[in-house]
Design a protein that fits this description.
The N and C termini lie far apart (about 120 Å). This protein has 33 helices and no strands. The protein has helices at about 5-20, 25-40, 45-60, 65-80, 95-110, 115-125, 135-155, 155-175, 180-195, 200-220, 225-240, 245-265, 265-285, 290-310, 315-335, 335-355, 360-380, 385-405, 405-425, 430-450, 450-470, 475-495, 495-515, 520-540, 545-565, 565-585, 590-610, 615-630, 635-650, 655-670, 675-690, 695-710, 715-730.
Length: about 725
């Protein structure tokens, strides 16, 4: 029995089952036959079978099978377009035309409308007569490139990559192989597809090769400067993804300089590209930690796009929305939360308008902008509003992922991760955990299918899962999730330190926290020390980008040493951390104020434990002033309680009582009845200690009432005991 005969038997079995109304049972036979024919390179027979498989999948009403059939049809398209012309020993020209027509029919019936125009283009090419081989190569390369872009947009990443590779292969055989503009188009698309597949190094290499070629051509022909600028922009993106941030910034800066030169001579032709290159430059500057310069670059981009959108909204309104969205992020990096909010709100409004007019094109952009809006609102403490927009973003991504999981599952996972943060901000820890667990599950599935593209996302989600579990007191589970995150980042950092070392440092810092939560202070030290060492190494090369991370890990190291009773060593780490925070200046204070306050609090505690009470009070007073300046009520409360504790140790009960009463006002404003009761009870004890029995009795009675409201029986007993003792002191002897 020949291979073709075996495949025909499989096809007939499938056809019989389909005729009997059993499409789900028929599909495995059709798929088996199709695989067999493709493996034997009988593409003509495979293409004729594709519409039959499509029909069976349609009858099954199984989305998973429909997507699989679409992927097979796309793969066949690429294989057919890659065959030599004008003829091939395995298939005649007429058979080729019939085969591509069959694939076109298959994709149309499967509802693959986004890729269908590219297949129509391919089919029309095959109808051309007398096309020379070089021209055919050029046209087929362009068609495959178009197919690749459309397939990627709809989530068919493996097929998109294969089409991009074949497009480059055909183009390099054509007479136009040296044409810079076309080379940038096909090689740039290949680099994008490689990056999506997680092969960041190969993507960077492809982008650099194009850049080198374009630079040689532009050196000899100034008219090719626009192409060189485009190649520089593309290369910068891929250099950054691969972790070479300095080179990425150099490329982005050079692209902007070229477009600025070109726009001076011909603004109409080059202003749009200048705006896009400025937007990219802003991202690269932010990667280097140059946040003020990043905001300036993107503000210029926004200004240009705003002018262009005013004259031609149909062409440039989407670009304006994207640039505004990016500007909101950059302003947030600077701690300018109030300035970033209206910018992001405008981006959302633009994308909402565009999505109403064309949901297929812009719903995803709207959801992404909503995600960023949720972050901006959260930065301002507007947690309920933040949650509302995060939920809207999630609804959109859930709908999109339901329609096309390949294209939108990763964005759904990101939205769930973000929702977990927003719910955590509101103290809804169970709901937060549920959202984060779903995010991890999606990323785990994606990483199993494509580890290069999604392992990093999985590791980030696991890191967040550790936080969510810790919030619920599930410290063992929290540790397990964080350890897995560290293991993944360590693997990635070994392969590409430029891209992943900083993420490994952050995960190690969190691992130290998780071990500390379990009381394993000695075990927490190596992880935190490694985090400090990595950040120190990174900050030496790029202080603007990594000094803040170094300060945070040093602060955590101080906490870990303090937990181990090594107060002097703790003070050294904390002092270095605080010195870094102070050196960073006022401009970015909102982005690190909370961490600096915590470092000052821990340092104050450490000094107090060493008997250096005056120095401790100095640290805590600085923390209190900073917390008040930042309107951080919870940190104000925590610091006042630390100060009160030190005064109590000094037996300075009057000052301690005043601190407890200040703390009680903060607790009342925060609505924390349990802490309010504890503060008032402590204040009562202080007043008793310095002889204000009447004031103490009033406060002890109030504390009892609060403890009764919250149902704290043990605290009620202590309050009753204090009240009775005070009554004995205040009531006259009979």
């Amino acid at each position: 029995m020949t291979d073709t005969q075996w495949a025909e038997i499989q096809r007939k079995k499938g056809a019989e089952l389909l005729a009997e109304g059993n499409p789900s049972d028929a599909i495995p036979y059709f798929e088996s036959a199709l695989r067999h024919l493709v493996d034997r390179n009988d593409l003509y027979s495979a293409a004729r079978l594709a519409p039959v498989l499509a029909d069976a999948c349609l009858r099954s009403n199984d989305d998973r099978l429909l997507r699989r059939a679409t992927a097979r049809s796309l793969d066949l398209s690429v294989r057919l377009m890659s065959l030599p012309r004008p003829s091939h020993e395995a298939i005649s020209n007429d058979q080729l035309k019939t085969a591509i027509s069959s694939i076109s029919k298959s994709l149309k019936s499967l509802g693959a409308l986004d890729v269908f125009p590219a297949i129509q283009e391919i089919a029309s090419l095959e109808q051309l007569k007398g096309v020379d081989e070089s021209g055919s190569l050029r046209e087929r390369a362009a068609a495959l490139n178009n197919l690749s872009i459309r397939a990627a947009r709809t989530g068919y990443a493996p097929e998109a990559l294969k089409a991009a590779q074949e497009a480059v292969h055909l183009f390099l055989q054509s007479e136009d192989a040296e044409d810079p503009a076309t080379l940038v188009a096909v090689m740039g698309n290949l680099a994008n597809r490689l990056a999506e597949a997680g092969d960041l190094d190969s993507a960077q290499i492809a982008a650099r090769e194009v850049l080198m070629h374009c630079r040689r051509v532009a050196d000899q022909d100034e008219s090719q400067l626009p192409t060189l600028a485009m190649a520089l922009s593309n290369a910068g993106v891929h250099m950054a993804r691969a972790g070479d941030i300095p080179s990425a910034l150099d490329s982005a800066s050079e692209a902007v300089a070229i477009y600025q030169h070109l726009a001076r001579d011909n603004a109409a032709a080059h202003l749009p590209n200048l705006a896009g290159s400025l937007n990219n430059l802003g991202v690269r500057l932010a990667d280097m930690g140059q946040h003020a310069e990043a905001a300036t670059a993107i503000e210029e981009s926004v200004a240009i796009y705003r002018q262009l959108a005013r004259d031609n909204p149909g062409a440039y309104l989407p670009n304006l929305g994207g640039s505004l969205d990016n500007l909101g992020v950059r302003l947030g990096d600077l701690g300018r939360y109030a300035d970033g909010l209206p910018v992001t709100e405008e981006a959302v409004a633009i994308y909402r308008q565009l999505a109403n007019e064309n949901p297929g094109a812009y719903l995803s952009n709207l959801a992404s902008a909503l995600n960023n809006l949720g972050v901006r609102l959260g930065d301002l403490g507007r947690y309920e509003d933040s949650l509302s927009v995060a939920e809207e973003a999630l609804l959109i991504f859930r709908r999109l992922a339901g329609e096309n999981p390949r294209a939108h599952s990763s964005r759904l996972a990101s939205a769930l991760n973000n929702l977990g943060v927003r719910l955590g901000d509101l103290g809804r820890h169970e709901d937060s955990l549920s959202a984060t667990e779903e995010s991890v599950a999606i990323y785990r599935q994606l990483a199993n299918e494509n580890p290069g593209a999604y392992l990093s996302d999985l590791s980030g989600a696991l890191n967040n899962l550790g936080v969510r579990l810790g919030d619920l007191g599930r410290h063992e589970d929290s540790l397990s999730a964080t350890e897995e995150s560290v293991a993944i980042y360590r693997q990635l950092a070994n392969e590409n330190p430029g891209a992943y070392l900083s993420r490994l440092a952050s995960a190690l810092n969190n691992l130290g926290v998780r071990l500390g939560d379990l009381g394993r202070h000695e075990d927490s030290l190596p992880a935190t020390e490694e985090s400090v060492a990595i950040y120190r190494h990174l900050a030496e090369a790029n202080p603007e980008a990594y000094l803040l991370g170094l300060a945070g890990s040093l602060s955590n190291l101080g906490i870990r040493y303090s937990g181990s009773g090594e107060y002097q060593t703790s003070l050294e780490a904390l002092r270095e951390s605080i010195d870094i925070y102070r050196a960073l200046g006022e401009t970015r204070m909102p982005t690190y104020a909370t961490q600096m306050i915590t470092a000052l609090q821990v340092m104050g505690n450490g000094l107090a434990n060493l008997g250096r009470a005056d120095e401790a009070l100095g640290c805590l007073t600085e923390a209190l002033d900073l917390a008040r300046h930042q309107s951080n009520s919870s940190q104000v409360l925590a610091t006042q309680l630390e100060i009160a504790a030190i005064y109590t140790r000094q037996r300075n009960f009057k000052q301690a009582g005043e601190s407890y009463e200040s703390a009680s006002r903060e607790a009342e404003a925060l609505g924390s009845a349990a802490i309010l009761g504890a503060c008032i009870f402590a204040s009562a004890n202080c007043r008793k200690s310095y002889g204000d029995f009447s004031g103490a009795l009033t406060r002890a009675t109030k504390a009892y009432e609060i403890f009764e409201q919250v149902g704290n029986l043990e605290a009620m007993d202590r309050a009753v005991e204090l009240v009775n003792s005070l009554k004995a002191l205040t009531e006259p002897w009979s």
